[in-house]
Amino acid sequence: MKKFKRISVLLLAMVLVIGLAACSGNKKANVGGNAANSESKKPSAEAGAIDTSEFVKISYVILGDKPKNGQFDAALKEVNKIMKEKINAELEWKWVEWADWQTKYNLLLASGEAIDLITIGTDWLDTWGNAQRGAFKNLDDLLPKYAPQTWESIPPENWAQSKYDGKIVLIPEDAYTQWVNHGFFYRGDWAKEAGITDPIKDWDGMEKYMQFVKDNKQGVIPWDSQGGTSTFGGWVQSYTGNLELPLSTGYLPVFASKSEDEKYTVVSPVFEDTMINFAAKMKSWADKGFWREDVLNYKGDTRTLLKGGLTGVDQHHTQTFATLRVDMDREQPGSELQMYPFSRTSGNLPELSITHGGTSLGAHSKNPERALMAYDLIRNDEKVYRLLNYGIEGVQYEIKDGKRVRPASYDPKQHEFYSDFWGGRVDKLEIPSDTTWDQVEETLYAEYDKIKKTYAYGQFVFDKTPIEAEFAAISQVTGEMGPAITYGKAGDPVKAVEAFRAKLKAAGYDKIMAELQKQLDAYKKLIEG
């Protein structure tokens, strides 16, 4: 096999030499200028231009379940026609699917695999931890030359939030307006039947709603969730002033800062009554039959069941709600889907970090220059952007009166499209859509604007080096014990939480608390002088 590969490479090299001679010169890419307006221009071979004569494939690691209807593949094929023309490269989407996604994602980065572009998120994908482990390439010298449009469009203060150890290791998704604060989704029509006429404002309100569904909607599971989804962070947001820190402890958050007024003081909601109250509520919900008995092993799709009228609750963030509301209006007419954001109870709502989404370059990338050129096209070329984010015009969407609408021939199952690209969306290339609820800004966004707080940890980089082993052990404990507590399957709530705390202590909780406080003290000096 190896001999065959060597012969194949030699033959390919001969073909390339002959082909290049016939073409009279190397193909070059002009990475300056407006990409959206230069699609038909052949790049020149002037001095200093970038050599793209060798065709390469560029991988992009994405979080999400790979689409199975072929629509994304069709759009990517069109994208790659542009990639081939402009930078002589082909883009490959590499999916990390949601089943056990945290483990898969981190293992991929630790494996040494030669990945190119990869989705990052400092507040949910352990980006700083992976940067500390050397997972990403330094971009300082590469960006200005190979992604010049992106480089110029991001202000210095945002690049400052994209650095680890003084070096840029990520490209922030800083030019896209979104709210990804979480909450429960519930049917407004069923809530009215239950006598709930005002927006639900707390978890007791959700309980009343789910009890009504349990008692009155035959064949419907109130919340047909799966064990991989934890809502403890939502409970903390609802019933404390704690702020989420940009570090992940696996299944559920163990550490937080105390409040907006004491944002540099470390606390643990797990070691306060917050956790016991949550565990008791979840045990109560389990006993009431709000989810299926085998929830910890269940792998069903809650959102699909909601659209089918087979469950009454889902849980995710505001951006998801804005599109799901439109889907529900179509699939379940009159359902009037509503959202109870966890922040409504407490008024505890930080703005989104600009590094909640973004893109890094794998440390072992074999083609870092071309990868950044591909990224520059994705983020700035209008045709590429639309194909990757919206699909093919005429199939997935049409534009009428400045809005994206679905064509008359659109079949949701046949033509559904998504790319799960959260690595560099920009408002300037977004097209408003009729698939987004047109009242979300005047309702939820307006509510959020009244209570939002400035995100405090944009430049906080948690160094795990002194407590690497303890941190890994803590995350393992949350994965082992968190699901059972979250879904009321751990027996007596108080005893379950006590056992959980004991295991966290044994794993090194106190050492991590001390180190984290030390680093937040240093961060406070950095920010406040």
Automatic annotation (TrEMBL):
<dbReference type="InterPro" id="IPR050490">
    <property type="entry name" value="Bact_solute-bd_prot1"/>
</dbReference>
<feature type="domain" description="DUF3502">
    <location>
        <begin position="457"/>
        <end position="525"/>
    </location>
</feature>
<dbReference type="Pfam" id="PF12010">
    <property type="entry name" value="DUF3502"/>
</dbReference>
<keyword id="KW-0732">Signal</keyword>
<protein>
    <submittedName>
        <fullName>DUF3502 domain-containing protein</fullName>
    </submittedName>
</protein>
<dbReference type="InterPro" id="IPR022627">
    <property type="entry name" value="DUF3502"/>
</dbReference>
<feature type="signal peptide">
    <location>
        <begin position="1"/>
        <end position="29"/>
    </location>
</feature>
